[in-house]
Each structure stands twice: as C-alpha cells, then as structure tokens.
Amino acid sequence: MRVCFIFFATLFSSSVFAQSKGYEFTVDLTHVVDDKVKVELTPPDLKENEITFFLPKIIPGTYAVQDYGRFVSRFKKKKKRGNSLPFEKIDTNAWRIKSAKKIAKISYWIEDSFDTELAGPNIFWPAGTNIEEGKNFVINPSGFFGYFEGMKQMPFKFNVVRDQTFYGSTGLIPEKTGEPLTLMKLETPQPNSKVDVFEAEDFDRLADSPLMYAKADTAVIQVGNTEVLIGSYSPNGKVTAKEIANSVREVLMAQKEYLGGTLPVDKYAFIFYFTDQPVTSYGALEHSYSSFYYMPENSIEGMKQQLRDFAAHEFFHIVTPLTIHSNEIGHFDFNDPKMSKHLWLYEGVTEYFSGNMQVKYKLITPDQYLNVLRQKLLISDGFKDDLPFTEFSKKVLSDYGDQFYNVYQKGALIGMCLDIKLRKLSDGKYGLQNLIADLSKKYGKDKSFNDDDLFSEIGSLTYPEIETFLNTYVAGPSSLPLEEIWKEVGVSYISELEEEEISLGFSNNNISVLQYNDQPMISLQNCDRLNGQGKALGFQNGDILVGMNDVPLPPLGPEASEAIARHRASMKAGDTVSYTVLRKDEGGAYKEIRLEAPIKPTKVTKRHVISFDKGANEAQLKLRKEWLTAQE
Fold first, then answer.
1. Which residues of the chain have pLDDT under 70?
2. Rounded to an integer, what distance in angstroms lies between the CA atom of residue 418 and that of residue 602?
3. d(C-alpha 623, C-alpha 629), whole Å
4. Are residues 550 and 461 part of one domain?
5. What is the pLDDT of residues 537-587, one digit of tens each?
6. Per residue in 485-510, pLDDT tens?
7. Which of 465, 460, 456, 453 is nearest to 423 (CA)?
8. Is 417 exposed, middle or buried (0-12, 13-18, 19+ CB in 10 A)?
9. Residue 602, phi-psi category: left (phi > 0), alpha (psi -120 to 50), beta (remainder)
10. Is the domain of 106 the same as that of 130?
11. Could you tell me if residue 435 is inside a domain?
C-alpha cells in the first residue's frame, strides 16, 4: 500500500473568492481530442512584467518525482485583445511568461498518465490522471492545474464541464453543481452538458482534492458528525459503492470511537477506481478530506479485508498529518520540496492505529493482530535497521527512496512501542491515542510544529523517558527493544527459532512475476535456495505456476493469494501436493508439466516468533487489556 501526506484548509465561500480575485480554471470533459482535454485559466491580477507558471514536480506522499508538466501540450497565452504573448518553457514543469500584466487567458491541453506513452518517471496510480472518453475521468488537480510563482496562497476556482449523466466524487463541497452550459464560453459546446463549480482557498487545498467523474455509483455513510461518500468506478460492475459501504461501515464506526467520538472533518470521500487490466502494483493515496484507491477489479468477497485495511489506514490521516504536521508539510513546495523528519508520525502511527483499532473493537482477534505485527517485522528485515528514522524521512527524496516502504513496517512498530511504554508509565491511563489527541489540540490544522522541536514537545506533554526513547530509537540507529516492550504486556518474543512445518515448497524469496498471455503470473526464482519440499517437487527457475492440486490458479493478485492459502490450509503430512507449471523447452516454447511429491514436514528457521505468554502475571495482563481492549 502506498500512502501520502495531506494538506490543510477549509473551503472558502463564493463571497471570499469574489472579494479576493484569484485563479479561475475550466476543464471540459465533454470534448476529448487524442485522449486529451483542454484546460483554460483566467489568471489573477499579475503585478510582474515577467512571471513563471508551474505545474507540480512532486506532491506530498508519493516521495518521488512526478513531472506533471510533461503532460501539457499546446500551451498558449493571450492578451486582453486576443493576441498571443511570448513565453519560454524553462523546464519540464515551468513556463516563463513575458508581458505578464497583459495576460487575459492561458490555455493548454492535458494528456492523462494512466495510459501515457510519454517518457518520464512512472506515476503512482492513485496520484495519476485518467481520460477515458464517455467512461471515466480521474482528476488529480496537480496533473491538470498550476500556479504562478509566489502566488500559491490565493483563492482557486475551477469549473468542470461534464456530461449530464456523470457525477463527480470528491471530498470538496461544490459551490454549484449541474449548472447549465450557458454559463460557459466554450469553443465546442456539447449538448446535454452541465457545469460543476468548486473553490479552494489556495493551491495546497486544490492539489489535495482529487475528483473522479463517471456515471454515478455512490453511497453515503454517516459517521458521527461526518458525511462519508463512497464513489466507485467498476468497468464491469463487479463491485458497487453500496457493497463497499457495507464492508467498511463497521471499520469507520470503530474509528470514530477510537478517536473519541468526534471527527475533525464534516465531509470525507473514499474514491475507488477499479481496473480490469492486469496489474502488478496498486494502492491508495490519502488526502485531508478524501482518499483515492486504484485496485484490480474483483468481487467484494475477494477483497473485503483488504478494503477494510486500506480504509482504516487512510481514514486515520484526518488526524496525522491533517491536524498534526510540521512546517515542511503545512507549507509544501511543489517544485522544490523540503521533507519533514517525522514520517514515523504521519505514516507509521497512522498504520499502527489502523491495526490497533481493529483488534480493540473486535474486528480481528488478538492472535490475528500478533500475526499482523509479525508480518511487519518480517518485511522490515529487508530494510536498513540501523538507519535513523528521522534521517531516512528527511532524505527520502534524495538518498533513501528505496527505504520508504519500511515506514509502514518499522514505523508502525515504533507507534506500538510508544503506546505500550506510555501505558506502562501512566499505569494504563494514558496511551498513544491520548498523546495524538493532545498534540492535535496543541497544534491543529492551521498551526505547524517545528521539525526539530517535536521530541522535546512530546517529552513535556508526557514523560522524560518518552523523549529519551524517541531520541534513541527514532533519531538514533538502535534497534527497537521489542523483547523488553512486549514483556510488559505478557507477549513472548523470539527473534529466531528452528522448527518443522508443512511447506508449499517455496517462500517469498523464490517468487517473481512474469507476464504470460498478458496476465501477471507467479514465477519461481532462486531455486537453488528452495527448501526440501521444493527440491522434492523439482521446481526450476522460470517455472510459471498455473495450477495447484489440479485446480487452476488465477493471475497474480488477491484471488491467487487466497487460492494458495486455501490449499496450504488443507495440506497434511503424508498426503501428496501437486503443481501444474509452464516450463520452457529447448526451443523456448512453454509446455505444461505436472509436478508432485509427498508432503513432508520441513525444517525451517522462523524469525520473529510472537505469542501470548500463558504465564503472564496480573500486572502484565492488566497492561495487555489496556493495549488491546477498548475502554468503556
């Protein structure tokens, strides 16, 4: 899962926009030419003779260059009398405009990122844009709209011209919706079109507000004081917004209670784009008032728990960093960004909360929760454990991009350690939830903290021992004291253990992905390092798994994982396990081969073995209850 930072603001009213003339954009979704749509800008009053217009190079949360400007073509500027003005494209994302005071309008055409053939960095799907004429439009505003140098903190208004049957799913509250087309001056007006009008107080809020237009498939859940919109696009109708709402409702209600019963937003949108194309990666991107999901199209039963996990993580971002964030995030520079030291807080604590909430409100069992934590440790083994998290976070764009995924692993474990340690110091009365609530009150969405001061601020709010912990294990290179921490709540932890178990014959280290018939399939690699079961089966590098126990395996994705898990659960020592694989012959053609072998327990070295200590004392059990049980 990929997730991101958020922006902070409240929506301005029409009267505020009128009092302080800002930007006015129009994008026409009813007129698509060569998979592109036209964007027009009536600029704010420009005081400079020469000024630079930008589209973002990067946005918060993706931690990689996007270069949205490369999707722009036919860039034009017109004087108030209609003549074109000179300009110079100074880099991928910037246009220097001369005689700027005379500009009446800027126009350009935008290509989408979902199916682009343009050179440049790959854009993380949920941060991308989509133009499918008559079907679907994904508008991440950073990929459509820009700003003038030094004028990011001005009001923005944008008009979306759409087919009258389309609906725009977004966390924004429209100023007007379904207005008649007569309000707009378009070169090629289309019949049966309507206009939606949105406003944001600055570019931060605009860029933080994705929209998806398609034929309406929506549902609404009232979660305390917050109206939660579910907007879905499923090209073959395999899943509906109503099904998604029914699946995540219980999670959202639990989150409301976990956050104290009141949420800091009035409206929130979950926007789901499901693809029927083969995918090898998918994920979600969170925002202040919404989150966007790009996922393989599947039935609700095939992805129910994944949807709940995704929703739990993304929804918690209404707290961090919406109400708790540093200056680097509160005033993000889209073309020369500076990173905060505190990804452990924005992403790690959010990920910790998403799991801890589910066990507290009995959406998963305590044993299942321990397995969630174990999986995070196993994945974290693949990253640098001696790299201080603050250093990694500060340099994630330049030096440590390959370490980013650890923020959801070790970052969450940092949150767990803080929670247990706080509860131990307070005799169970104060935990990480309380700390985050206190930080939210101290700062809030309109006030940023100084990066270098956060640990001392947390120490003053809690205990000196907590500040020492943060400096030692978050700002320092030391490994987390997991055995010591878990002992406080009666959990046994063994870093490495050798035992016998039933094996599939391969592990994650033996899995790669190969395309076969335009589908991503599980393929085997590193077969010299297979365990005894795998060697008995005779796997070879490059084998493509297409069947198990004479049952076909689906392409790589949630359905394949579930199918393999079902087979594994039924495996018993003494039985026979079989695989159907595709293997290249000497001529390079794939041939189907059946492999089989008796199932024998295999000696394996297990790392990070976690279990509840049956001999835990009264104090440990009390603290465990505070950690894993919702309080009345």
1. 1-20, 80-85, 182-189, 558, 632
2. 37
3. 10
4. no
5. 999 999 999 999 999 988 877 678 788 888 888 999 999 999 999 999 988
6. 999 999 999 999 888 888 899 987 78
7. 465
8. buried
9. beta
10. yes
11. yes
